[in-house]
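Escalation from tier 1.

The customer reports that the assembly of two entities below gives different structure tokens on two consecutive runs. Tier 1 could not reproduce it. I'm attaching the input and our single run for tier 2 to review.
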Amino acid sequence: MSHSLTVLAAGGAGEHRTLIITLFSVFVAITLGITVWAGRQTKSAEDFYAGGRSFTGFQNGLAISGDYMSAASFLGIAGAIALFGYDGFLYSIGFLVAWLVALLLVAEPLRNSGRFTMADVLAHRLAQRPVRTAAGTSTVVVSIFYLLAQMVGAGALVALLLGASGEGARRWIIVLVGLVMVLYVTIGGMKGTTWVQIVKAVLLIAGTLLITVLVLNKFDWNLSHLLGAAADKSGKGRAFLEPGLQYGKDGTSRLNFVSLGLALVLGTAGLPHILIRFYTVPTAKAARTSVNWAIGIIGAFYLMTIALGFGAAALVGSKAIVASNESGNTAAPLLAEEVGGGAGSTGGAVLLAVISAVAFATILAVVAGLTLASSASFAHDLWANVIRKGATGEREEVLTAKIAAVVIGGISIALGIFAHRLNAAALVALAFAVAASANLPTVLYSLFWKRFTTRGALWSIYGGLVSSVTLVIFSPVVSGNPKALFPGMDFDWFPLGNPGIVSIPLGFLLGWLGSLLPQEAADPKKYAELEVRSLTGYGAH
Amino acid sequence: MDSEEVAETPSPTTTPAQRPDGPPRAGIPAQPDRFLAVQASDEFGELRRAHRSFAFPLTVAFVAWYLLYVLLSNYAGGFMDTVLVGNINVALVFGLAQFLTTFLIAWWYSRHAAARIDPRAEAVKARMEAAE
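Tier 1 run:
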């Protein structure tokens, strides 16, 4: 199987390609059908932004899982475990534990007190125009980071399937992914996007389960055997199963590990495309149910990444994985080909095609969710309430959201074409760091701290946003090494790949400091209203 | 709906019926200090306590438990590398324990919320709606 790439590039992959294209086209056709159907029922702004608040807790739990289990999880984590063994597993754990923050502190009060976006909650008690501007800006930035990660995953997949000769095709497919996601969002709104995510979640769980069963079956259902084989094949022996292979080199990389860990656990509850999902159910109780379902589904999925990652290490081998993609993004599809019977076999071709189609579906559903979140925030927060000062009709606001979706789609297509050397999981971790630094402190302070002020919110959002993005720009992710975004340049004075350990505490600190400085006091009446509404659901939309 | 949205920040004297993100709800009489009164009531105090006294300590606990895992992975290699059986080491079991505790905390919170938070929230809400 180490010849996968050569075989594919030599043109022996005609059948794979036809099959993959067929399966993928079927998925796109079905989901576009759903989208058109959902679009017919989308009339009001509430339909477009929140799917008419008509989903059940279970449906939304599936959709949340579909929104959350991105290319980073499926391709990136499997790759990180396959290449770095145990250290890749940290992503799975952090991504899951993070849901408890959403469950215990954010989901229910947000559902009770907000309407369409994260900023709705802040606008209850703070000066509406400045906080909407700030929250809208950070929503768009976080979503674009996240979109970039998905596009990188899409690019890696195309390169695997089409070989080195596929550079032109890679661009076209990224353009295609961008176009389809814009269609989902503009035609189907939240209702269409939610159904796409539900379909995708079912497909992804089924595909992952299939590979997991096939992998475990090869090792007589003995996890210890699987780990042993992975350790042997990795050439690193026991160290492959121990922490430290990727992050244990020196003090800096250990600190980077802590930074990443913080960003993962605190980021989820600040991700705009996750937060707006809580508005698609009728009550706070249904929001709680949906998070519980999501925790169950996502937890099961991440447990299976153990089989996926170590299975790829044991059966495909890191050499073949790196040959296909330097960051390991193609470990999962390569593993599918291997457990299906190996390169050249029909079984291998079919499984590779199925898993690749599932991965494309995954990417498509997640980018649609991100596009919806950022265009909704642009239209509802920035356009309707800041620029037009509330003088828009519902129709104009939805039209603005659709135009924004087209523009954001264009931006992500352009970014996706240029960035492809980075690991998708590491990129998503950056989005988590920005979300945890810029969004989470303000959301928590607004809901639970009576002395929080507009100035505190602005300091926290802009401080968290600027510090995290600045530190990323001057980190090894962007320059100074061959895997960076700009490998030829060298301005990486910040040593950590993830800024969380600096920018998250800074976001919290600035929110606290900005509120405590004199001249502006919190309004107890407005906090009373927000607190009562958020805990009781009184007057909820 | 949106055309009626309030443009500027509502002044402190805004009635509760005028919400910063939505139109005035018909049927709610203007009662400027209504939310302050509800917030100060014993009933609401109990609701707040039922949520905070459970969610806050538990959040601190699971974040600490998770950070312990991260720090041990990082700085206590010897302990985490201890082999328990076959190729299963402490690090793997610790990681799987994080999954288990996440599932348990989610279940525990939901049980607590259904028993102690939901009934109180319903009661306060019903009382407020009855007063409209």
